[in-house]
Amino acid sequence: MQPVQIGHRRYLMMFFTDQTAERRRRVLERVFYHDILNTLGAMSGLVDLLDQRVSSDAEGRRFLALMRHQTDTAIEDIEAQRELASAESHELQVHPQDFCVHDLIVQVVHQYANHPLARQKQVVLREATD
């Protein structure tokens, strides 16, 4: 609200914003994140079940490990996007924690080792302290 004087009269200016569309978008976004994470969780469970049946097939186990990694990566990416959306809407609750930088770098190296752009390339990680 903002008081305004026009001539000898005082008026009170008020501005309104319809937030219906924004609220609806946030609800739909929450439903999407919930549903897609449930779907990926089910896929992860199926990979675990297949893993129990393919115990002696080395190539099958290798493909299952790749499937598990890609499923886990997709879940992490979606959770990161959900956190970003929460941060943008000022709803994010932050829980700082320590982590090992070396482990993070190893994870990134493994993630990109199987990427199509990494064909015929080798990423070398030298030993380093955290």
How many strand elements? 2
Helical amount: 55-70%
Q: Which structural category fits the helices and strands?
A: mainly alpha
> Which parts are unreliable, with pLDDT below 50 for 5 consecutive residues or more?
none
Measured between the Cα atoms of the first and last residue, the distance is: 54 Å
Question: How are the strands of the largest sheet arranged?
Answer: 1-2
What number is the mean pLDDT?
Answer: 86
Oligomer type:
single chain
Q: Quote the beta fraction.
A: 5-15%
Question: Given the structure, what is the number of helices?
Answer: 3
How large, in whole angstroms, is the Cα Rg?
A: 25 Å
Report on the structure:
- 60% of the residues lie in helices and 8% in strands.
- With 130 residues, the chain is mainly alpha-helical.
- The mean pLDDT is 86.
- α1 (20-53) packs antiparallel against α2.
- It contains three helices and two strands.
